[in-house]
Structure formats: C-alpha cells, structure tokens
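Team,

Forwarding the record for the chain on the shared tracking sheet. I've put the sequence and predicted structure together so nobody has to dig through attachments.
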Amino acid sequence: MTRDTRLRAILEAMNADLRRGEFLRIEAYCAELETFLAEPRQALAGGRGDSRRLAQRNMECLKAAQAGLRAGMRRLAELAAAERADIYDRTGRRQPMTGGTEGRRL
C-alpha cells in the first residue's frame, strides 16, 4: 500500500465511522494518523489536495457531531428540569412543587 492510499484509507474509514456515529473509534484513527505522520516524510504522489479535502471533510463531520451532542445534552437538561416541576411562590422565588396541590389554586 502506498503512502497515498494508506492516508486515503485512514481518512475514508474515519469519515465512514463518523457518519455512522461510531465515535469510540475516532481515538484509534487519531493514533493511526499520528503514527502515519511520525514516519519519514515522503511526498505524496497524489498531491496534498485530496488528503487536505478528505481531512477537511472529516473535520466538518466532527464539528457537526459535536454540535449534535451539545444539542442533545441541552435537551436532556431541559427534560430533567421539566421533571423537577418547579413553581414560583408569591414573592417570585422558585420552589420545587410538592404533592398536595391538587384542587388548590396556585
């Protein structure tokens, strides 16, 4: 396997796993890329354009995945807050809603 095809294979496999949501494998790809970059440098026969484009695509996928994870965490926090069912008293302070309010006006 040439240096070109090896780099392309790593980047393509990483992208495929990113698209499937296999985030636990990303660390292994990073280690593989570190090993690849630590080897004696030779010019890539296919030029750097393809490799740069593939790496850019992977970076965009990682950013999108990160944004999705943040949105999911925000939504989980919203749901947890809704489960607490806080209410406000007459002075405007927030308090947890307790049982025994059925039939009473708040």
